[in-house]
Amino acid sequence: MSNPISEKFPFQSHYIGVENTNIHFVDETTKEKADTVFLFVHGNPTSSYLWRNIIPYTIPYGRCIALDLVGFGKSGKPDIEYTFQDNIKYFNSFVSKLNLTNIILVVHDWGGAIGFNYAKYHPENIKGIVFMETFCKPMEWKDLDILTRFVFKKFRDNKTGQKWNGKYNAFLRFILPMSINRKLTEKEKLYYFSPFKTIADRKPIIKFPQELPFKGEGTLNESIAEDYFNWLKKSSIPKLLLYANPGVQIQSKEIDLYKSVFKNLTTAFIGNGKHYIQEDQPDKIGEAIEQWYLLNW
């Protein structure tokens, strides 16, 4: 049964020094000794706040950690470029600093790319992977509708991207609310907007669209995405794909592909949703993760 979607973030904040900054995270469990670590990884332009209504479903089964990626949420904003490679470095260092093992990755958007890359190189630390609305392979322009193609080509232009996502804060003001079915409350908006008050604060939001790995562009990011896609196809680690209708990054074409090429994959439909499905269907997401976990372990 679905509960009202709560705007509260009832978790204690923790910080750890990573590279040249501090990374903020929450660390919750009800178990005296938790062998399993549920590691929640968000994308652009959100934070650990995205997972607030899903974490309670996994707390009975392990240690639940949700971090704010570098430059996001309450994490520090060091003077870096915020490339995909930068995010990989800070995320990997975070996991290493906390000495996390037996991890079930729960990932969304860029969190998927960052998490998949980690799993490829550290499979011994990964117990399972839950993914939703993320890119498991290099993206293709032809798969985007005309409006999305137009907007993201503007975002990827250095000058226009700086203006739209820097000066006008377009990703937060327009893309985020347009990608959620319900209307966010003022308190929810404050959680998402408060880390990005100035143009300088918005550097991570500006950079992520420019870093998207598109097929045929010959970039390092395309190569990274191709590599972790090939690994996902070979790995027998249990995987759970959560998808919504109509979805954005994972629609029927992607669902059919992943069903055909990923080993040990379970899929679950969680209802109506666009991209930030955690803000529309948190209970169904939490229930699906819980059921999958109980069936596998």
Describe this structure in words.
By secondary structure, the protein is of the alpha/beta class. It has a domain at 14-140 and 219-296: 3-Layer(aba) Sandwich (Rossmann fold). Helix content is 39%, strand content 18%. The protein is built from 11 helices and 8 strands. The chain has helices spanning 55-58, 84-97, 110-121, 146-156, 158-167, 170-178, 186-193, 203-211, 220-234, 252-261, 282-296, and strands at 14-18, 21-28, 37-41, 63-67, 103-108, 126-132, 239-246, 265-273. Strands 1-2-4-3-5-6-7-8 form an 8-stranded mixed sheet, sandwiched between helices. Strand 1 (14-18) and strand 2 (21-28) form a beta hairpin. The protein starts with 13 loop residues before the first strand and ends with a helix. The mean pLDDT is 97. InterPro entries: AB_hydrolase_1, AB_hydrolase_fold, AB_hydrolase_sf, Epox_hydrolase-like. This is Haloalkane dehalogenase. One of its GO terms (molecular function) is haloalkane dehalogenase activity. Keywords: Hydrolase. Pfam families: Abhydrolase_1 (PF00561).
